[in-house]
Amino acid sequence: MMLRSLNAVLLVLCAGFSASALAHNPMCECKAIDAEQIKCTGGFSDGSGAPGVTLDVIGYDETILVPGKLGADSTLTFKKPGAEFYVLFDAGPGHVVEIDQADIEAP
Fold it and tell me: Signal peptide position in this chain (predicted)?
Protein backbone atom coordinates (compact mmCIF):
# COMPACT_ATOMS: atom_id res chain seq x y z
CA MET A 1 0.00 0.00 0.00
CA MET A 2 2.85 2.37 0.84
CA LEU A 3 4.44 1.70 -2.56
CA ARG A 4 1.18 2.60 -4.30
CA SER A 5 1.04 5.93 -2.39
CA LEU A 6 4.64 6.66 -3.30
CA ASN A 7 3.89 5.97 -6.98
CA ALA A 8 0.91 8.34 -6.85
CA VAL A 9 3.08 11.09 -5.35
CA LEU A 10 5.75 10.57 -8.02
CA LEU A 11 3.12 10.68 -10.75
CA VAL A 12 1.79 14.01 -9.47
CA LEU A 13 5.32 15.45 -9.23
CA CYS A 14 6.15 14.36 -12.79
CA ALA A 15 2.94 15.90 -14.08
CA GLY A 16 3.92 19.19 -12.43
CA PHE A 17 7.34 19.15 -14.06
CA SER A 18 5.91 18.44 -17.50
CA ALA A 19 3.56 21.42 -17.14
CA SER A 20 6.52 23.70 -16.47
CA ALA A 21 8.24 22.33 -19.57
CA LEU A 22 5.30 23.68 -21.60
CA ALA A 23 5.75 27.18 -20.17
CA HIS A 24 5.83 30.08 -22.59
CA ASN A 25 9.11 31.68 -23.66
CA PRO A 26 9.66 35.44 -23.87
CA MET A 27 9.92 37.06 -27.28
CA CYS A 28 10.86 40.60 -28.25
CA GLU A 29 11.44 42.28 -31.59
CA CYS A 30 12.69 45.80 -32.26
CA LYS A 31 12.55 47.66 -35.58
CA ALA A 32 13.63 51.15 -36.54
CA ILE A 33 10.61 53.15 -37.71
CA ASP A 34 12.89 55.81 -39.17
CA ALA A 35 16.35 57.24 -38.37
CA GLU A 36 15.12 58.60 -35.01
CA GLN A 37 12.48 56.17 -33.63
CA ILE A 38 12.58 52.50 -32.63
CA LYS A 39 9.52 50.38 -31.89
CA CYS A 40 9.79 47.21 -29.79
CA THR A 41 7.08 44.57 -29.43
CA GLY A 42 7.15 41.99 -26.67
CA GLY A 43 5.18 38.87 -25.91
CA PHE A 44 5.41 35.16 -25.35
CA SER A 45 5.71 32.08 -27.56
CA ASP A 46 2.16 31.02 -26.69
CA GLY A 47 0.88 34.13 -28.50
CA SER A 48 0.07 36.14 -25.39
CA GLY A 49 1.06 39.77 -25.14
CA ALA A 50 3.15 41.42 -22.46
CA PRO A 51 1.50 44.71 -21.46
CA GLY A 52 3.20 46.30 -18.45
CA VAL A 53 6.40 44.25 -18.80
CA THR A 54 9.63 46.20 -18.26
CA LEU A 55 11.53 47.14 -21.40
CA ASP A 56 14.56 49.31 -20.72
CA VAL A 57 17.08 50.81 -23.13
CA ILE A 58 20.50 50.43 -21.53
CA GLY A 59 23.87 51.90 -22.48
CA TYR A 60 26.95 49.73 -22.77
CA ASP A 61 28.10 51.31 -19.48
CA GLU A 62 24.93 49.78 -17.87
CA THR A 63 23.22 53.18 -17.49
CA ILE A 64 19.47 53.07 -18.11
CA LEU A 65 19.01 55.48 -21.01
CA VAL A 66 15.25 55.00 -21.46
CA PRO A 67 13.29 53.31 -18.66
CA GLY A 68 10.04 51.88 -19.91
CA LYS A 69 7.18 49.43 -19.78
CA LEU A 70 5.26 47.95 -22.68
CA GLY A 71 1.90 49.60 -23.33
CA ALA A 72 -1.51 47.94 -23.57
CA ASP A 73 -0.63 46.84 -27.12
CA SER A 74 2.64 45.24 -25.86
CA THR A 75 4.79 47.84 -27.66
CA LEU A 76 7.11 50.67 -26.71
CA THR A 77 8.41 53.32 -29.12
CA PHE A 78 11.42 55.40 -28.12
CA LYS A 79 13.91 57.87 -29.58
CA LYS A 80 17.14 56.20 -30.65
CA PRO A 81 19.85 57.11 -28.12
CA GLY A 82 23.05 58.79 -29.25
CA ALA A 83 25.15 56.31 -27.27
CA GLU A 84 25.61 52.59 -27.97
CA PHE A 85 22.81 50.59 -26.37
CA TYR A 86 20.85 47.39 -26.02
CA VAL A 87 17.22 46.70 -25.20
CA LEU A 88 16.33 44.57 -22.18
CA PHE A 89 12.88 42.89 -22.11
CA ASP A 90 12.50 41.62 -18.53
CA ALA A 91 9.40 39.60 -17.67
CA GLY A 92 11.02 38.07 -14.57
CA PRO A 93 13.53 35.32 -13.77
CA GLY A 94 14.11 33.10 -16.78
CA HIS A 95 12.05 35.41 -19.01
CA VAL A 96 14.63 37.92 -20.21
CA VAL A 97 15.54 38.91 -23.77
CA GLU A 98 18.41 41.23 -24.74
CA ILE A 99 18.56 42.87 -28.16
CA ASP A 100 21.76 44.64 -29.15
CA GLN A 101 21.48 47.79 -31.24
CA ALA A 102 23.28 46.01 -34.10
CA ASP A 103 20.40 43.50 -34.26
CA ILE A 104 17.65 46.10 -34.66
CA GLU A 105 16.19 46.06 -38.17
CA ALA A 106 16.66 49.20 -40.23
CA PRO A 107 13.60 50.96 -41.69
Answer: 1-23
